[in-house]
Amino acid sequence: MIRRRVWKYLTSTMADRQLCSAGNFEADPPKDVIRVNWAFPQKKNDPEYVDISRSQFTSPVRQLRTLFAQELLENFGVQAASNAVIRFFKPQRTVNIYDASKATFTWDAEELTPIPVPKSLSSFISDTVEDEDLVDLVVSADLADLPPMGDVLTELPALQRYQKIVQTHGPSPSAAAKSNEYSKLQKESATAIHDGRLSRVAPPLEIFHPIFRLFLRLLRDPSHQPSPSDILAIQELFHYNRNIVAESTRNSKLLPLFAKLLGCTIAQYVNPDGTTPDAMHIISINGMTLATLVLELKEELGDGGCDPSTLAGHSMRCTWIQKDVLSLTACFFCGGPWITVMGAVITNKVIVQRLTDMMWLAESSTEEAGRVYRAARVFSALRLSLSKLKEYYEGIAENDKIPPLIDSSHPRFYPYPTHYIDRLTSEKVEFTYVKPLEQSDNCVTFLARSNIARDSLVVKFVSSYGVEVHDLLAKKGYAPRLRYHGSLDDDDEGDELLSERPDSALERGIGQPPDGLFVGPLKMVVMDFITTPPSPKTVQPSGPHRRQVEEVLRILHRAGYVFGDLRSPNVLIDIQGKVKFIDFNWTGRYNVGVQDDGDLVPEDLQRQINEFAAKANGGGDGEMAPAIEERYAHYPYNINKAIKWHADVGPMKPIRPAHDWFMVEKLWSDEL
């Protein structure tokens, strides 16, 4: 089947070429962009295309090697051993893209003319690029032994990072958790624990496995109630924690209590390298050993010269990298009467995050029923989560479709959601992750490809998103189509249990979170991928692009919306020179009844805003601005203060139209 990305005539009478993708049609690329159909015979795939500038088309082909290295990675999942081994050929005979896609088609090396690296594509294929049905170019390359994903120039592939982690044993957990050694280990990616210390921040655990969402959901679900036996076991734990005893004596009493509370066997195991966590829960499936729970127990908080929660994280890492032990995903530590539950995964890094606050599990007053009840709910939620985790591993053992861990496309390195329900068609769309779209370890935005249509998608995970604003600009052609916004599991009802809604917050007596503090559940956002020029020099931001940005702001501000994070990473220029806004995390309504100081907002636009404000307060026909009492967009509590924002911008402050116009002056400049 010909990929929809290949350009072709839709009818013989159509004057303009158009691209068919998910039922939408787009115009031809601009005249200064050349579309080249190319094939890669070493992988039997349909022909692909690449857009290059006219200057690139007339330059030596050696300058295209970096571009095609990235294209090979994204479209065929392979990496060239080096850019120098990428070679270009012109087909000596006319080959139709439809013929080239047939399973019986083969390329004959004798029918391919090498293009010398000092020569340009224009000197070889100018005669074929005018016909979009023809294969213009054939590419070959010597491939690297290990095909990675991501940036072929700068990124260490996920599989290589993972392999380096499991091959680097480091000191024992008890030594690694001491502050001096801990600090050293955090500075090396192979030994670091991504737990927030020394800026080792990672995405939320919830996106990597549904067990974490289940645990957090149960904690907030009022229908999840502990049993009387849970209450009695917790009371026994509280009663015992009054004692101050030696660690060995204490553990012999606590482990049976924890086993009763969690409904599983908990015992001490010695790892193959001789290290020994205080206790673990081990399951064995088809000869595989899986540690699903690790416990670190200390006589008192601080004993041993380290934070026991840090010790638990290093114990998990140490257990993971054993030759015969597979990954675990939950743990907790106990320091005297203090306890906390943590979760952990290993992707291309070790991620450890606290799932509960530290809880005091001892009798310190005559009235401890509330504390006993809350602790019993935590342990019963953990018990159910561990049971579901075992079912998950049993399902994996029976699944013969799980891919081997041989390259960086393995699911281990990506979030677990792999489908969404399209907002327009209501169809289920399955997709495969291609690579992260950022180099940072806390990246939550990924390039993906739909499995059937092969459309390029952007998948991101956020707690706040301006769906209305995104839809408004998409309709105007200034944003990609928003395909999905919702739960990670197609379960918006379940997400309500993870949301800090005003009613549930008030029931707990904590009131409504202030503006700028987004404490709702994580949502998955899926949108179309915007194809930008292969080189930043292909399309330079100019006056027409600025005018497009200004038009977008007029559209937003007239409708009562603000954007907030108006910086160059969030404003793209596509291959047709059209401006596209892509990040709507901060967007929302603003108070039209308040006028900004100064003259940043254009005078004519301010008059229109004032008219809308009058309608909001007194009625009138036509489009209505938001009522004054609505909640408005605010900057997040953790806004990056290093960026040179407007003077009135700050954490949890209202986002105003004047702020957007201020940032226009700095867009695409080095001032930010």
UniProtKB/TrEMBL annotation:
The chain crosses the membrane at residues 325-346. Residues 295-672 form the Protein kinase domain. Keywords: Membrane, Transmembrane, Transmembrane helix. The keyword Magnesium does not apply. GO terms for molecular function: ATP binding; protein kinase activity. InterPro entries: Kinase-like_dom_sf (IPR011009), Prot_kinase_dom (IPR000719). This is Protein kinase domain-containing protein.
